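FORM 12-B: Structure-to-Sequence Request
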């Protein structure tokens, strides 16, 4: 009896040893088999691009290009598809199977001109997602309201695609959002009123280079993000809610819109403001002396507006020395250094 069990133990050891020798990869593979299956489907849905040639079923998928696994669980946590050469020959839609990688925290598609079609509804299954980047692609259609279900999102960047339609108001329900970057698309309609109800201080916002219209909702005055870029749209009316001496805004770019409000009454974030660009609007009134108290202003442009009166001189901000005439040109009747003297 004893001998027999001893024998079978030896056989077992030999058996395992030969298995180890025969298929070292299979035994040392860390990658979760379910994740691997999904990735291979993903690759197939993208028509097996050369870009993903390293996705060899005989190799551990934690070692594949574009993929990252968690150190402990070995589940796929990041899928980052970034073309490193200009002619990455990848064409197709975002594969729906990406929704079946339930541990994904980071999903990125960058500089893939051949990536087309909609933002897939299966993305809603990625409830652990913190970072979603779809940038410099030809992904089109609307920004789907269902993205609001990704409650852990910290960065939503849909910059530079072919997206159209209006901005869904549901996005303000994302409680952890730090950046919302929807610039350089073909978005139309107004900035949603709901954006004022983002959890304070609110995410950094870039909606620039779209075709947004209407007025800036007054509710946005409740926010205090570090940076807001609404440049190159068709926004009209009052933008004064975005200013205030107690705000911590560093960068405010409202250039190239149809904004029209009295600049004389604006109070600026004195401590924080670094960059203010309002060029090409219909802003009227004077440049207020409060602007000379903004200490760290490095970029400033009020050109192509309807401002009038003397450029305030002196103050810690020293506007007249710090910025040349190009910051002030093409207004109604601005005068004083660096422009010609007032009459
Ligand atoms: C790019 O892909 C297309 C079709 O998918 C194919 O016809 C073409 O030969 C590919 N070009 C290169 C350089 O691989
Ligand atoms: C979208 O596709 C066109 C060609 O159809 C290409 O010229 C353009 O660069 C693409 N856009 C982006 C952002 O990749
Ligand atoms: C961009 O979107 C428009 C619809 O808004 C569509 O007609 C066009 O084919 C899209 N371009 C690409 C390259 O996908
Ligand atoms: C705001 O967006 C425009 C257009 O996308 C860009 O050219 C500009 O540099 C941005 N402004 C700042 C201050 O980053
Ligand atoms: C201000 O904007 C105008 C119009 O875009 C531009 O011509 C000028 O160079 C800018 N000036 C500065 C100082 O940035």
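FORM 12-B RESPONSE
SEQUENCE OUT:
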């Amino acid at each position: 009896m004893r001998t027999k069990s001893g024998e079978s133990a030896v056989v077992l050891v030999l058996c395992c040893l030969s298995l180890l020798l025969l298929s070292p990869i299979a035994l040392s593979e860390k990658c979760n088999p379910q994740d691997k299956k999904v990735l291979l489907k993903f690759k197939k849905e993208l028509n097996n691009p050369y870009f993903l040639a390293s996705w060899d079923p005989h190799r551990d998928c934690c070692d594949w290009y574009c993929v990252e696994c968690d150190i402990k669980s070995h589940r796929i946590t990041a899928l980052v598809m970034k073309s490193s050469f200009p002619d990455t020959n990848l064409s197709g839609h975002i594969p729906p199977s990406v929704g079946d990688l339930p541990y994904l925290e980071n999903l990125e598609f960058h500089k893939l001109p051949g990536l087309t079609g909609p933002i897939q509804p299966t993305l809603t299954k990625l409830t652990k997602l913190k970072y979603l980047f779809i940038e410099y692609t030809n992904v089109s259609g609307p920004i789907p309201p269902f993205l609001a279900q990704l409650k852990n999102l910290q960065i939503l960047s849909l910059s530079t695609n072919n997206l159209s339609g209006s901005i869904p108001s549901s996005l303000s329900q994302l409680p952890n959002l730090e950046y919302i970057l929807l610039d350089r698309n073909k978005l139309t309609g107004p900035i949603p009123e709901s954006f004022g109800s983002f959890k304070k201080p609110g995410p950094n916002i870039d909606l620039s280079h779209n075709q947004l219209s209407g007025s800036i909702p007054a509710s946005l005055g409740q926010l205090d993000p570090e940076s807001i870029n609404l440049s190159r749209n068709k926004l009209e009316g009052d933008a004064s809610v975005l200013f205030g001496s107690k705000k911590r805004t560093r960068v405010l770019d409202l250039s190239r819109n149809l904004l029209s409000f009295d600049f004389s009454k604006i109070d600026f974030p004195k401590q924080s403001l670094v960059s203010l660009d309002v060029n090409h609007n219909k802003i009227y009134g004077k440049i207020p002396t409060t602007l000379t108290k903004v200490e760290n202003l490095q970029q400033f442009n009020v050109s192509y507006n309807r401002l009038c009166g003397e450029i305030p001189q002196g103050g810690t901000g020293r506007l007249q020395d710090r910025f040349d005439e190009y910051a002030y040109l093409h207004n109604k009747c601005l005068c004083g250094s660096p422009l010609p003297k007032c009459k």
